[in-house]
Amino acid sequence: MAATSYEDIVVTGLNIFPIKACKGCKLDSITLDKYGVIGDRRMMLVDANSRFITQRRYPQLATISPQWINPETIMVTAPGMSQSLTHQIIKDGPLTETTVWNDTVLTVDQGDIASEWFSTALGLQYIRLVYSPVGERPEYTRPLSMYYPQSLREKLPLQEVDLADAAPVTIVSNESLVDLNARMAAHTGGHTVTLDRFRMNIELTGASRPYQEDEWLLITVGEAPILLYSENHRCKVPSVNQETGVPDKVGPLDILRQYRAPGGPDKALFGMFGLVLQAGRTVNLGDKINVLELRK
């Protein structure tokens, strides 16, 4: 199928989340590998049961701010902490079993100093920072196929994913947010939200209508081919203010359930999940979108 040009749609936001569930970093460009966005969700925090923790239960995670200093070193700040944490990633340590949703993955514990810092910052006991050696050590495996829609499991390529919830890369348009905010404002007397609530990797502007991204199957973002294989089923995390860590009384999920949940209230939709089809490609602010194939 010949490419259709969507000349008005451009990339206006790029984000990575170095530590899963913590604050994101805005970038001018991102590079994709076959597991997702390089530097995105390659680390996470786990509890005493070695299970990942998220803003669903601990919204204060939104105030923990990590920054990659280089591929080997991360710096983290948090409100109330007099000192930041500068941590050199431990990549060759013993592998331990940790849990993301129903997946058991092998990660590398990052030591007691990091554990004490995060436990203090969050006011929780025995929080551990772990690193995913995805693509670096063959012992790490996390097949993505279980997250494919049932109808596509035999058709989509086998792929693994890092510590993201269910997709190597996520995409949404600002036009979808504008529509959601109009509905939120009407329902709440004026309350609206910003796009960072949805913690997406690639943000677009210029769609001809809200939720136009739902219609796309195969696209290129700049020179990066991406297969949009599923809508993004939303949880209550977008109700958390990403600056304060305080949840809204009425959040985006409450509104989305009213008009964007064809599969039931637990499957409210906003944004798209994508597969990386060619590793090594870079996406930049200002890159244009081409739609090569529409979803049936």
UniProtKB/TrEMBL annotation:
PROSITE patterns, per database record: MOSC
SUPFAM superfamilies found in the cross-reference section: MOSC N-terminal domain-like, PK beta-barrel domain-like
GO MF assignments: catalytic activity; molybdenum ion binding; pyridoxal phosphate binding
Occurrences of domain MOSC (ranges): 141-292
Protein name in UniProt: MOSC domain-containing protein
Organism name: Amphimedon queenslandica (Sponge)
